[in-house]
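dumping this here so i dont lose it
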């Protein structure tokens, strides 16, 4: 499928196949591969017209997904799965990617963390926290207090596990960042779909925002916000935005 359709497809796959999937970049396209049974294959074919092939699963598939998750670095932090070891003395964020809510390796996540590392420290809301990797990275970078919200209860559970694993203090709750009451913070981070980013900005949840989840051709548009710096990684973009007076 085209790369600009992949984010929506990932979200649908998490509902249909919560145990996870593999992703392979093929130029301008993205291939998503799912391990499932015949019933699962039928659900996928019903949901995705582009499901065109199926083949028997090779032996050892249960552990094969681990090979797709390698450590990454962003904002001066080592970010990796629990079966890898951070270099001695290097600040680290450990996140278990087993539920595919976000590992830190995706360009949008790395870009958000890079931009965070350049900003003045203060209070943060991670809207649509997923695995909690950005919230945990913010804590490692010295931001506090840190809040995180996600509409998916499984994501809140995963983010809570990430906070415990890294020994960081994050106030987490389940809710829709577009409608729920939000805490007063100095900075909001939103690594979510573009339309959701724009809807969140309309709420003016903070004086500054770090946003991502969209391609370099896209720019968030919301009244009352001025563009700041932009970081582009592997065809994806992240922006720092400042609320105008």
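and the seq i came up w/
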């Amino acid at each position: 499928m085209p790369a600009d359709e992949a984010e929506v497809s990932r979200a649908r796959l998490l509902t249909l196949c919560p145990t996870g999937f593999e992703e392979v970049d093929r130029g301008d396209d993205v291939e998503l591969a799912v391990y499932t049974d015949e019933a699962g294959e039928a659900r996928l074919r019903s949901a995705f017209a582009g499901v065109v092939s199926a083949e028997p699963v090779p032996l050892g598939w249960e552990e094969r997904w681990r090979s797709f998750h390698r450590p990454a670095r962003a904002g001066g932090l080592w970010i990796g799965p629990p079966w890898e070891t951070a270099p001695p003395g290097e600040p680290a964020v450990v996140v278990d990617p087993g539920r595919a809510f976000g590992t830190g390796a995706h360009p949008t996540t790395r870009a958000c963390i890079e931009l965070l590392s350049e900003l003045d420290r203060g209070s943060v809301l991670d809207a649509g926290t997923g695995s909690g990797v950005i919230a945990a990275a913010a804590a490692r970078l010295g931001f506090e207090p840190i809040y995180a919200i996600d509409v998916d209860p499984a994501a809140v559970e995963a983010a809570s596990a990430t906070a415990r694993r890294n020994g960081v203090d994050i106030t987490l709750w389940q809710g829709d960042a577009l409608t729920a009451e939000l805490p007063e913070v100095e900075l909001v981070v939103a690594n979510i779909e573009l339309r959701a980013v724009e809807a969140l900005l309309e709420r003016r949840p903070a004086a500054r925002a770090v946003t991502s989840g969209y391609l370099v051709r896209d720019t968030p548009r919301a009244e009352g916000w001025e563009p700041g710096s932009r970081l582009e990684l592997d065809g994806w973009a992240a922006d720092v935005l400042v609320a105008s007076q």
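Residues 3-66 form one domain.
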